[in-house]
Structure formats: structure tokens, C-alpha cells
Amino acid sequence: MSSRDLSNGRPVRVAIVGVGSQGMGFLHALRLVPEQFEVVGVADVRPGQLEQAARRYEVTRTTSNWREFLEDRTVDLMYFGTPGDQHSENALAALAAGKHVYIEKPVTCNTNDARQALELAREHQLTVMVCMNVRQYWPFPIIKRFVDDGLLGDIFFAQQDYLHDCRYVLMPDSPRFWSTNERPINFHRESAIHPLDTLVWLLGPIKRVWAQQVEGIVAQRNPGLLRPSDCVSLELEFCRPNMIGRSLTNVGYIGYYAFPYYSISLYGTEGTALPQGIFLGRDNNQDYEQVHDPERQVLIQYTQELHDQLGITSDIPIVPYEYQPGDPSHVACHLRLFKLLLPALRRRQPVDPGLGSNARLLAVLEAAQRSLETAQFEVVDYTGLETVS
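^ that's the sequence the OP posted. Answer follows.
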């Protein structure tokens, strides 16, 4: 059982499991902050990936058996960039061995396993971070500040779209086809979890959900590959009074190759956040320009503060905001998440995005799956998940 103290500020010793595209990005981020993290070794079942990681990042210890790191008392934290259907096994084994965990979404395959993980994390005072990277992308940190500061007033409707042309990983004849033993691939856990995470992070928990699906390009060409289909719309009722919303996830369309598009719209009593910009104003007689221009300085101030807090270095337009493909990169997202992770590790505390918040997203997705079967609103079951971070 690993229980080494991290409160003295020494580097966190990390074992990396899975060095595909996600794992390589995580490894790259670690190498940028050597005073904070030390790489113990990497594990992958693909010899070529191990060789590439060893060569590119000078990793001296490689193995095809990730469970070797469970017995290594010098390992503080284990990272998992493995297929989603393996995450329950990965997370539960690491927590049982007394390791902190940093894992790609989802944290586990279902809420039952998440509850078991929560018990282990509490018992051993372990931190679990889930790499929900979309909330780190521009413009979401800016919008978060506007919502938290009440500048949009009371939000009454919200919509988040996640559009990703995933033919390059979801077509079986593609060289980058997702390597997973799970058939059908759980579309909710792999994709629909992204927009839900952003909405819940901004606006709080979801009470009920009604799901609908249609077949896009991937589903039509590969029947039975995904469950549910590749285009899913979720009607949402939030726990917050007088607020509803919608989440659209579509990975079966023709778009800009390999780059996802994230679009969010928030409608409040004192302002609106749209893909075209953020508009504030209490006077019904004000037109677009009068509402837009006086608030520009507020956006500039918030943006400069976030640059300092989160390390944003890109030259991003302030108003109107627009998602820039690849900016910030996954590496930059990891670096920002490290700022949240390190204090939690040193205090052996929960963190967000983490085990609790991701488990609650799984509860929403399980309700959505029930809704597809019943064709009606389903209440989200948060039993055992309500008060944990």
C-alpha cells in the first residue's frame, strides 16, 4: 500500500498506462514541469508505442504489464490513457493499491463501479482527477467567470453542442480506428459526456433528461458499432429552478477533419453568451452596439486575469470569442489541470474535475440511456453521489 507523503513539496512520481495520442500528450505535459512531476515509467501493450515514448521522452522503464506499477511503492500517481471500457478495472485496481489516479474520461464504466471507487478513495484519502479537457478550452473559463459573478443574471436556458467528425477513428477500415474490446462502443461515455460536463460545471446538476437519437454517417455505414447512435440530443431539466437546456452531440457528420467544434449559448435575465460574443444590458432600449462596447473592458480585465491564473499564452480574440481548433492544445489543458491537481495531492483531498463530478455525469448518461428505452423524461439517480467532489 503506497502512502508516501507529498506535503513536503517533492515531485510527484507518476506511472503512465497507455501512451497513445492522449498518453503522449500527458507525458509531454509532465516533461514541461519536471520540478513538479517525475516519470517512473510507462506501460502499453503495443511495443511500438513503448519504443516511441522511450525514445522521444527518454523514459528508461517500459513494460507491457501495467499492473507492475501497482506493487511499486515509489509510485504516487497512476495515469490511465486506456480505452474507456477498461477504466473501471484501471481505477479500482490503482485505488485499492493506494495510488492517486489521473484518468481520461470516463472515470469508470458505470455508477456502480464509481461508488466502489469513491469508497476506496475515501478509505485511503486518495485524489482522483478526470481529464475533462473541454472546460479548459476557450471561451469556457471566461464564461465561467461571467456566470459565477452573476453578470448574466439568472440563467433560464442553456445549450451546448459538441460536433466532432470522428470518421477517422470510428470507421473500422481507418488506421486510427479506436482500439477497444467493447462492442458496441458506448457513445455516451466517449463523447456525450463532454457537453454535459461543461453545462454542469457552469450551471449545476441536472434533475431530468429526455434523450433522442438519429443515425448519422458513422451509424448508417456501421450498424451496431455505437450504442446509442452517433447523433444524440438531450433535453435537460436542471436542479436550479426555472432553468432548462439542451445538449447535442454529433460525431457522425462531415466536418473539419479531426477537430471538434464546441458551441455554447447561455440566456440570462441580464445578459446572453453566444458564439458571436457576450452581451450585457439591463435597459430594453439599448441596441447591440450600446450593450456590446461598454462591456469590452470587463472582458479584457477577465481575460488578463485568466491568462495569469491559467497560463494562457495564445493571442486569442477577446470579443467576439470563437473556438480556435487546437488552441489551447491538450498539453496546455493538462498543465492547467495540474494547477488544480497538485494542491489536492499534497493535502490528499478531492479535486474537480474528479471522481465525484464524473460519477454524477455517468448518472446523467445512465438516465439518458433509460430515456431512449422509455421515450420519456427520466430522473437522474444520484444516490451515494450527492455530496462528494
